[in-house]
Amino acid sequence: MSPKLPIKANKFLTLNTVIAFDNELTFGVVLDFTKEQIEMAANEKSLSMSQFKQEFKENIKVIACESGGKLINLGAVYNYHVQLNDASLFTEVRVTNCN
Q: Model-level pTM?
């Protein structure tokens, strides 16, 4: 692991781990939110938790493709393991193409 990790990407997101194996990069990130805060955010947008997670996954794909789209389109795979601040799993995202 890099001695430069964790990296506070913004006030809500911390990158804790990066693992590279073959053509895959796996990122371990922590959102600085509780489950209750996530549920409130979903409710404010009038979304079910499933819809909220899907929207989150789509946003992660956009970010992944903006930063690593050329690599992804050449066969790299970006995996995101997203936890909440209590270490519970929020969602996992796998980006295999940027089309």
A: 0.90
